Amino acid sequence: MTALAESGRRLRWAVTDGLTLIGRELGRVRREPGELVAALVFPAVMVVLFGYVFGSAIRVPGGGDYREFLMPGLLSMVTFASVTGVMVRVAADASRGVMDRFRSLPMARAAVPFGHAGADLVTGLPALAIMAGAGLAAGWQPQRGPLPAAGAFLLIVVLRYALSWAGVYLGLVMRNDQAADQLVPLLLPVTMLSNAFVPTGGMPAWLRLAADWNPVSALTAATRGLFGNPGVPDGDAAWPLAHPVAAVLLWSAALLAVFVPLSVRAYGRRGR
Description:
single chain, 0% strand, mainly alpha
């Protein structure tokens, strides 16, 4: 019982310190309004750019409006962007000595990674809402009602939180924020190599295999099905696309199982 009580005390300590650091990250965003405005404007720009500029040249298999096909993909793309955003912020804190100061305080070791991941989730919700609003203004709408739509947004939030832990780890192993910035363009193809913008059926077999097993493709397929938008894969699709909700949950669990302990360990070793 004593060991159980001690574990509970440590967990409460980590959560309390983590919530404090979430507040610190939100305060930093308020002090840098330009970054906040860019993060909020970007989703609306993406809807206009892909929906109207490229949409007229792309046909949806089985018919349907391209903007309705596109919106789940754009929501998935913004979700994956959490990796790069968290990575750069964590690398900046680490290279500027902020984490050394945190380490000198009586804080739980997991609090700093938890704070960064939690802050990304909180700040990402307005961007998600703006992109959904821009999509509604452009003619997109969920077709299956509020409950399946809520399930789709919940999947987006779950995977975003899991991906943010990958960003925390990458930021901790980067030497500085300049190195993290250079890695950002290399992560963009991961988003593009998916079914977010075009169907994967026309890709070469080896490229289609990578796209079908991309977590971005699983999230896009899952949200298309829950929103009732065109582009839902048929029964002959690869397993992640034939069972996209299960695939998203498995990807999320795997990312958390791998990157939470790696992030906590990397934070502990950063100052050595």
